Amino acid sequence: MKIIHEQLSLEPFNPINIIQSRFQEFPKHWHAEIELIYVKEGTQVVELSGATYTLKEEDILLIGSGEVHSFPFQSSSSSLIIFHLGRSIFEPYSDYIFNSEFPTPIIEPTNEFYRLLGESILKIVNLRNEKVLGGELFLKAEINKLAGNIIKYVPVKQLMDNEKKKRLEQLKLLERVLIHIDQNYDQEITLEEAANISGVSIFHFSRLFKKLIGVNFIQFLNETRITKAMILLQNKEDPISEIAFKVGFNSIQTFNRWFMQINGFTPSQYRAKYE
After folding, report:
1. 92: cis peptide before it, omega within 30°?
2. Which of 127, 146, 218, 259 could bond to 120 as cystine, CB 3.0-4.6 Å?
3. Spatial distance between the Cα atoms of 96 and 56, rounded to a whole number of angstroms
4. Architecture of domain 163-272 in CATH?
5. Residues 55-88: pLDDT tens digits?
6. Is 70 left (phi over 0), alpha (psi -120 to 50) or beta?
7. Domain extents for the chain?
8. pTM for the whole thing?
9. Each residue of 106-154: pLDDT tens digit?
10. Pick from 102, 120, 119: nearest CA to 62
11. 225: closest CA among 256, 270, 268?
12. How far, CA to CA in Å, does 19 sit from each of 62, 103, 177, 213?
């Protein structure tokens, strides 16, 4: 479950990336663009900056620039519309919105300004799919309307001028460690080894990791292993003890304890769902 620095290529005319797809899992990642998630069908759990949000159908979630987020593994998929919004969409307010966080990121249908955002999201998708004369202009107008409503109605928490830039630099510092975890989660990885890879002291690494990822290094490593195990557990042929060792745990007791702590049920109970 590596953290991906997702470098998006947005169109010059309409700097917005639109994804419509079904998801069961997406690893921890971050990008400079603001992300908007709209749930078309089902429910979707999102981990964002150390907090966990459960989105229901038609809920909207806003994610600020440079914030680490993921979709933890879930047994059933959800249908989502995802927008990545570039800086130029928000001009002349881009510095204001990109140097901010969303303290209450979920916008539910009961919210007083929900209709303004929800209607724009669906119109943008429809206009993007239509191929009509002048359609690009209507699309650009609707994107601008969405951006304006976000700026006008969505509460934000302003950061210090250099705080966002510093966070992006710190995320890049951790990138090699997180790639190493993704590639070697089945091996022993110590805190000291991770700090050495990042090139900073253990003390500085531990503080930085918890601040940016939302959990400490050991928690993240074992969450990664448990996520891999949950996929393997859907195969009824492999013994649970074999799966525990395959994903990097040195005892079945440790594996069971972490599995229960993270999920609230045992590996056997999880496997029973697929029998």
Report:
1. yes
2. 146
3. 29
4. Orthogonal Bundle (1.10)
5. 999 999 999 988 888 888 787 889 999 999 999 9
6. beta
7. 4-158, 163-272
8. 0.76
9. 999 999 999 999 999 999 999 988 878 888 889 999 999 999 999 999 9
10. 102
11. 256
12. 15, 24, 28, 24
